[in-house]
Design brief:
alpha+beta, Beta-Lactamase, Alpha-Beta Plaits, 3 domains, six-stranded antiparallel beta sheet, 22% strand, elongated
């Protein structure tokens, strides 16, 4: 029969093996809990971190919630842990880890139905949390508490590593979000694209709260991302914002609004909302900085957009932008009319593009648009002219091309894109490196009675018919 000494040594050995395994924090704690119960008659155990920034206790669970306080109260924490880093509590009485015989007698005489034992988690003289153990054991020995003391120090090391790793991961994610928001204008300058991208980046970082972005126009806040916001509390908080306020927090600390400010004053706001979690001081600081970065990015994008009005290329796809395209279309219409040569146009649109953005994010949508533009550039002739017309629409001028030839080009584009895998790895969507999409295509032929606007209108009508009749098809204007 195994004696207590052998059992305790076996316990410490298994505990060491668990702590050296590369398990998630929750799975590590789960294994430790089972070990405590099996070897030491510990019926319930809690492993708790003290958040010094927010003065809250936080139990390590599968889904941590920093405001769900465990059974050990902050008062108990303050009375004992802050004053003593090396002792432990037994049923609310403090004892030295080096128990004396008379202390053991005292413990035996005061056995309760459920005994409570608390050890501090200490690193470099600073208390980071506590280990709370509940036991129905009726006999306690000095050896038993010695094993608990040793085990608590081993587990403390794992908790400390977990805390440091978590803090490091949060910091890295924060700086990545700041960097990504700053980099948006490298590929986008339209606010209709920039704001959803900013929203998605902040939303990924602030997993415990819903994020909303508003623009401020005509003395009112208008929601632009996501599609709906039904909580009236957010609107009441938004109305309290001004240029001198960094943020406004609700009475229950679950909702906050942060003004987006540039040289013109308040241009919008970012709101964080939850009906469960309170915003911590650290989270508020992060959101203040993310909002400032968003304001700078939006201001730079507006300035960049003004400059690009006089440029010729679309920043995302590398195709002609709409302004340049309209100039080229007028030139080709004039040339076709003057020289009596055929010319056709193609307008195409990515099917269900909104669903791509809603499901995988706007970064994935950008990858799709770049991939489609690459296909267009490969499949058309050198003297054909392609542009990004707007959003997910593209327009192609085919000089010296008959309507039958243009229809074949449209079908070839449709087929190549349908058979291609669009690379979205740059968007870093977990488990989804590629997407398969389709396009709808409208084809029209120029005649001498038309001007450039009528050419666009005719191609657009054919595209609308392609989408109305089922998508992933080519409709040629004037063909039955």
């Amino acid at each position: 029969m195994i004696n207590n000494t052998e059992k305790y040594l076996e316990f410490l050995n298994e505990l060491s093996e668990i702590l050296f395994k590369k398990l998630s924090p929750f799975n590590t704690i789960l294994s430790v809990k089972k070990l405590y119960k099996s070897y030491l008659d510990i019926e319930k155990s809690e492993f708790i971190i003290w958040d010094n920034d927010n003065f809250t206790l936080d139990e390590i669970t599968e889904k941590r919630n920093i405001n769900n306080k465990p059974s050990v109260t902050a008062q108990l924490y303050g009375n004992f842990i802050l004053s003593s880093g090396n002792n432990f509590l037994f049923n609310d009485e403090e004892y030295s880890c080096n128990l004396k015989d008379n202390e053991l007698v005292y413990i035996k005489e005061n056995i309760l139905e459920e005994n409570n034992i608390i050890y501090p988690v200490v690193a470099n003289g600073e208390v980071l949390g506590l280990i709370n153990l509940k036991s129905s054991k009726q006999e306690f020995s000095k050896e038993y508490f010695s094993v608990l003391n040793t085990a608590s120090k081993l587990v403390s090391g794992a908790i400390i590593n977990y805390t440091l790793n978590e803090q490091m991961e949060i910091s890295l994610n924060f700086y990545k979000a700041m960097k990504d928001i700053a980099k948006i204008i490298e590929s986008q300058y339209e606010l209709s694209y920039i704001i959803p991208l900013i929203g998605e980046m902040i939303d990924r970082f602030m997993a415990s709260h819903l994020i909303y972005i508003f623009v401020y126009k005509e003395n009112e806040y208008h929601l632009v991302w996501p599609n709906a916001c039904k909580d009236e509390k957010i609107n009441s908080i938004l109305n309290k914002l001004d240029e001198q306020t960094e943020y406004v927090l609700s009475d229950d600390s679950k909702i906050a609004a942060f003004p987006i400010i540039n040289d013109e004053g308040i241009v919008g706001a970012i709101a964080a909302y939850s009906n469960i979690d309170k915003l911590t001081k650290k989270e508020i600081d992060y959101l203040i900085q993310l909002t400032r970065q968003s304001g700078l990015t939006i201001q730079r994008a507006n300035m960049y957009a003004e400059v690009l009005k006089y440029a010729t290329m679309d920043a995302l796809t590398g195709l002609n932008n709409r302004r340049q395209f309209e100039t080229r279309l007028k030139q080709e219409v004039s040339n076709s009319k003057r020289n009596n040569i055929p010319m056709c146009c193609i307008m195409l649109d990515v099917d269900y593009f909104k669903k791509v953005n809603d499901t995988y994010g706007h970064s994935a949508g950008d990858c799709v648009l770049k991939s489609v533009s690459n296909v267009i550039q490969k499949e058309i002739r050198e003297y054909d002219i392609a542009c990004r017309w707007g959003g997910e629409e593209f327009f192609i001028i085919l000089p010296q091309t008959t309507i039958k030839e243009a229809a074949l080009v449209g079908q070839r584009l449709r087929k190549v894109i349908e058979d291609s895998k669009m690379d979205i790895r740059e968007a870093k969507v977990a488990g989804v490196p590629h997407l398969q999409i389709t396009i709808s295509v409208g084809v029209c032929e120029y005649n001498k009675e038309m001007d450039s606007d009528e050419v666009v209108q005719k191609a657009d009508q054919a595209l609308y018919e392609a989408k109305r009749t089922g998508r992933n098809r080519v409709i040629v204007s004037g063909w039955n």
